[in-house]
Amino acid sequence: MLLLPQTNQLRALHTVIRDRSASGRDFEVYSRRIIRLLLEAGLDLLPFGKRDVTTPVGETYHGLEFTPRVCGVSVVRAGESMEAELRDMIPGIPIGKVLIQRDKRTKQPELFYKHLPGDIGSGHVLLLEPMLATGGSALAALDVLRDAGVPEENVVLVNFLASPTGLERVSLAAPDMKIVTSSVEDGMNEHAFMVPGIGDFGDRFFGTVPTAAS
């Protein structure tokens, strides 16, 4: 698991979005700044190939090139918050969708929908899942990718907040999947929400619930 460096800037960004009185616009803008950091870190975990180029002064630069086959898969709906940043960074990148919802009574994940790139099994995948509480949704999404032929070691889980319980569960069930997150929380409350937490990420990002500021 890769935890983003806990810099003063990152803590300041988290302070804005964790504030219950933050406006919807502030939540979106500052979340997207963290999302960009997460995606950059996630891409750095993918394999690179060697590539030489000639510089404007006629010299050779011995560099690297990105893996040619990579796609994103977002866990609907919160994961869709990461899509725009990813497409800005890699124009034209294919993005699949997986809809998994947690049963409010049993707290268990249920798969309702999936649509993946046809050649997904031959490349690497950035699995976009901002909230890792119990770990159930992430593992259910990983099962979808495995069934599509994606090796576990070819998956990078790009995560916003994680609980210790979720991290332990995912690490035990999928030891070869890489994880990048911006924060490991203290734990979960009786409603399986992480604490200190951020609330419902999808609702706050897409503005589907009233905020205290409104």
Automatic annotation (TrEMBL):
Superkingdom to which the source organism belongs: Bacteria
CDD domains the UniProt entry points to: PRTases_typeI (cd06223)
Residue ranges constituting the Phosphoribosyltransferase domain according to the UniProt record: 5-208
SUPFAM superfamilies: PRTase-like
Pfam families membership: UPRTase
Segments passing through the bilayer: none
Record keyword Electron transport present: no
InterPro entries: PRTase-like (IPR029057), PRTase_dom (IPR000836)
Swiss-Prot/TrEMBL keywords: Glycosyltransferase, Transferase
GO molecular function: glycosyltransferase activity
Classification via Gene3D superfamilies: 3.40.50.2020
The name this protein goes by in its record: Uracil phosphoribosyltransferase
Species this chain originates from: Streptomyces wadayamensis
